């Protein structure tokens, strides 16, 4: 298959893919991969296969094609191709919740000396790295990466990237419980979709609606949460987006749990768990198991709650997801307090505080914890964040956290 024929077949596949004929598109692209002798065409078709498998939640296949793409990039001996292929390798590992590998591949991308094309990818690299740091609950570094990605998006006038970063920032602020910002950023993403997204894939609309639904639920606006989640789920079903379907099912279950409708929540959690297991989203599975635990606690089935916690703890430890572990210790503390088992209670109290210290989830001004309840937060340029009211009332000349880190033990 020659260069022109390769190009024609790739375009044919893209047309089929955009018309929701995904399996036909995959067959066309696989045929190109088998028959084309053009390395640049093979590289491009591998990019199409990586994107399609990512959107379908076939993350192991996504990773397999990313590895082949790296070999093709080396054959082409072009730093731009190599940077793009390492970014796809990073993204594949991010989807499979291999966060340390993601960070390592992202650093490889940033260290490559490519041309302008590579520099334009740096925003996407920073976003992927930020998502990985967030998966590991390393909040300051996550925020630093998201802010870098946002700067790249603004400098390159890349509205799609800005939309994706806004959704990740929504997720970031949901985790540390600043629910105003958790809603603000996906609303900003939805505005970008309305203003610029006429030619974009509908996944951007679905993504922003899902993150809005999560924030609305946290704020207790359950009807708004349900509306946004239904909109997101409708698009996910139309486009066969399994990862988003799993997240929407989890959100539906959480909404029903917030309404104390446990009997409706359980089957939604089960459906979400089934898809999360199928696609390999272990971080999502932790969230599902946390929701299931809380349902058992509402029903006062404490032993069943502890069974769910045990499964979630194994996953969280395997991923290095410290926030998940903190939440599990918190739930265990409540359960053992009710059971009046003092030794186990003390053990989880100690572990809870160790997690808080490790993640620096406390305000460096007032010393109170961050992420325990809904609070307005403000980040300084160094990406350390504090209670907004503390910054407003105390003012600051530089960051108190950075000042503490710069004092060397033994020289105090």
TrEMBL record:
PROSITE patterns associated with the record: TPR (PS50005), ZF_RING_2 (PS50089)
Ranges of residues in domain RING-type: 363-403
Subcellular location: Cytoplasm, Cytoskeleton; Postsynaptic cell membrane
UniProt cross-references to CDD domains, sorted A to Z: RING-H2_Rapsyn
Annotated SMART domains: RING, TPR
Domain of life: Eukaryota
A Pfam cross-reference name: Rapsyn_N
Gene Ontology CC terms: cytoplasm; cytoskeleton; neuromuscular junction; postsynaptic membrane
Full protein name: 43 kDa receptor-associated protein of the synapse
Family: Belongs to the RAPsyn family.
Keyword Ribosomal protein: no
GO molecular function terms noted in the UniProt entry: acetylcholine receptor binding; protein-membrane adaptor activity; zinc ion binding
Function text: Postsynaptic protein required for clustering of nicotinic acetylcholine receptors (nAChRs) at the neuromuscular junction. It may link the receptor to the underlying postsynaptic cytoskeleton, possibly by direct association with actin or spectrin.
């Amino acid at each position: 298959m020659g260069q022109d024929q390769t190009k024609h077949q790739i375009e044919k596949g893209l047309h089929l893919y955009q018309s929701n004929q995904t399996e036909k598109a995959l067959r066309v692209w696989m045929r190109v991969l088998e028959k084309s002798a053009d390395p640049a065409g093979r590289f491009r078709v591998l990019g199409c296969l990586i994107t399609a498998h990512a959107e379908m939640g076939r993350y192991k296949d996504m990773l397999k094609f990313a590895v082949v793409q790296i070999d093709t990039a080396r054959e082409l001996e072009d730093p731009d191709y190599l940077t793009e292929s390492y970014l796809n390798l990073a993204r594949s590992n991010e989807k499979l919740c291999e966060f340390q590998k993601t960070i390592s591949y992202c650093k490889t991308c940033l260290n490559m000396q490519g041309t302008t094309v590579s520099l334009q990818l740096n925003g996407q690299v920073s976003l992927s790295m930020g998502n990985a740091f967030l998966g590991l609950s390393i909040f300051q570094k996550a925020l630093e990466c998201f802010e870098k990605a946002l700067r790249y998006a603004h400098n390159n006038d890349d509205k799609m990237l800005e939309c994706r970063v806004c959704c990740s920032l929504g997720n970031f602020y949901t985790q540390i419980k600043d629910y105003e910002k958790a809603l603000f950023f996906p609303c900003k993403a939805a505005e970008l979709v309305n203003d610029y997204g006429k030619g974009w894939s509908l996944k951007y609309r679905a993504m922003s609606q899902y993150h809005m639904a999560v924030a609305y639920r946290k704020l207790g606006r359950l009807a708004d949460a349900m509306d946004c989640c239904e909109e997101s789920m409708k698009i996910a079903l139309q486009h066969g987006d399994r990862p988003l379907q799993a997240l929407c099912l989890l959100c539906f279950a959480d909404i029903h749990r917030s309404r104390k409708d446990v009997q409706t929540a359980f089957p939604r959690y089960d459906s979400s768990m089934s898809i999360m297991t199928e696609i390999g989203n272990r971080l999502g599975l932790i969230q599902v198991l946390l929701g299931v635990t809380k349902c058992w606690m509402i029903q006062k089935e404490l032993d069943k709650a502890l069974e769910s916690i045990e499964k979630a703890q194994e996953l969280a430890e395997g991923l290095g997801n410290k926030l998940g572990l903190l939440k599990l210790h918190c739930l265990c503390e409540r359960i053992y307090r009710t059971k009046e088992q003092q030794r186990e209670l003390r053990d989880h109290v100690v572990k809870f505080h160790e997690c808080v210290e490790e993640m620096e989830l406390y305000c460096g001004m007032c010393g109170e914890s961050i992420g325990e309840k809904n609070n307005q937060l403000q980040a300084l340029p160094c990406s350390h964040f504090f209670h907004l009211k503390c910054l407003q009332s105390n003012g600051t000349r530089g960051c108190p956290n950075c000042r503490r880190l710069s004092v060397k033990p033994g020289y105090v």
